[in-house]
Amino acid sequence: MSEMILVREPALEAATFAALREGGADERSAGAATRAMMHASRIGVDSHGVRLTAHYVKALQGSRINGAPNMEVRRTAASSAVLDADDGLGHAAAYEGMKLACAMAKDTGVAAVGILRSSHYGAGGAYALAGAEEGMISLSMTQSDAVVALHGGAERFHGTNPIAVGAPVPGERPWLLDMATSSIPFNRVLLYRTLGKTLSDGVAADASGQPTTDPNAADMLMPLGGVDFGFKGAGLAGLVTLFSSILTGSTLDHLVIRMAETDDFQTPRNLGHFCLAIDPDRFVGRQFYETAIMRYLVDLRSSVARTGETVMAPGDREWAVEQERQRTGIPVDPETARFLRV
C-alpha cells in the first residue's frame, strides 16, 4: 500500500464522475457507475473500485458501451421482469434491476429481474447492498467473459461470475456477502501487475494451466476451492451462468468478447445479470426476522475463535475498512490517480 496515494472520498467521487461524463456517459449512467465503484473503493475491494474508470472511458469512447442508453423493462409476470440495458454501463442496469425487483417484491413477496444487453457491472455487492437498504434480502449475480478454468481444466471457460447477497439488519449495516466463484477476481491480477505484488498460491494459472504466483504469467484463474476442491467453484460459476446468461438469453461466458485483453472496443459484449428480492414481511414477518437475525449475529460474533483469529459475519471486515478509509482517505494506485487527476 506504500505506493498508493490517499484521496479523500468527496474529491475522488467528483473526479470519477467527471471522467465518466467527459468520456461520454450521460448523468444517470455516470452517477450509477461512480456510486458502484466508490462502494468498492470505500470497503477495500480496490480491484473493482475507481481504478476501472479508465477502462470504462475507453469502452465508452470506442462505442462498445452506449453512454446514453434507453433501457426498457418488460414485465413478464407479477413477480418477474426482463430489463434490456441497451448496451449501457452495467452499473446503471444493475441498480435499476434491483430497484424494480424490490418494488415488485413489496407486492408479491419474491421478485426477480433478468438483465440482458449489458456490460461489466463491477462489484455485485453494490446492488445487493442497495436491495438490503430497501429492507429486502437481495441477491445480485453476473456472468463475465471466460477467464476461469474448470476443475481439472487447462483453458478458460467460465467468468469470475460473482454472487452477492445482502440482508437488512436493524440498527446496523447490512449483512453483506460478495464473492467471486473464482479463486480471486481477475482485476486483482491486473492490480497486482501494476503494484508489482506476488499472487497467493493456488489462485491463478499460466497459459498451460499450471498454477503460478506471478501476476505477469497468469493467464487464467482457478475456480474457488483450488486444485483439490475447485469443483465447488466451477459448479457455482455454472449456476451464475444459468441465471445470468442462459435465463436472460445473453452470450455464454466462453463466447463473450474479453473485457480487456482485446483490440475490439467497438462491439457490445451482451452480458447478462440477475437480481432477486425477498421481502421478509411475507415470510416470518419483520419483527420475527429482525429478532432472529440479531440473535444469529450476536451468537456468531461471540462464537469461540481460534487463537489469533477473529470471527466475523459477512460485511464486518468491509464496514471496518470503510470506517478507516473515511478517516484516512481512499488509496488509489498512481496510474489511476494520474488518469483521474487527483
Automatic annotation (TrEMBL):
The keyword Transport does not apply. Pfam families: Ldh_2. It comes from the Bacteria. One of its GO terms (molecular function) is oxidoreductase activity. InterPro entries: Mal/L-sulf/L-lact_DH-like_ah (IPR043144), Mal/L-sulf/L-lact_DH-like_NADP (IPR043143), Mal/L-sulfo/L-lacto_DH-like_sf (IPR036111), Malate/L-lactate_DH-like (IPR003767). Keywords: Oxidoreductase. Signal peptide: none annotated. The keyword Oxidoreductase applies. PANTHER family: MALATE DEHYDROGENASE (PTHR11091:SF0), OXIDOREDUCTASE-RELATED (PTHR11091). Belongs to the LDH2/MDH2 oxidoreductase family. This is Oxidoreductase. It comes from Microvirga aerophila. The lineage of its organism: Bacteria, Pseudomonadati, Pseudomonadota, Alphaproteobacteria, Hyphomicrobiales.
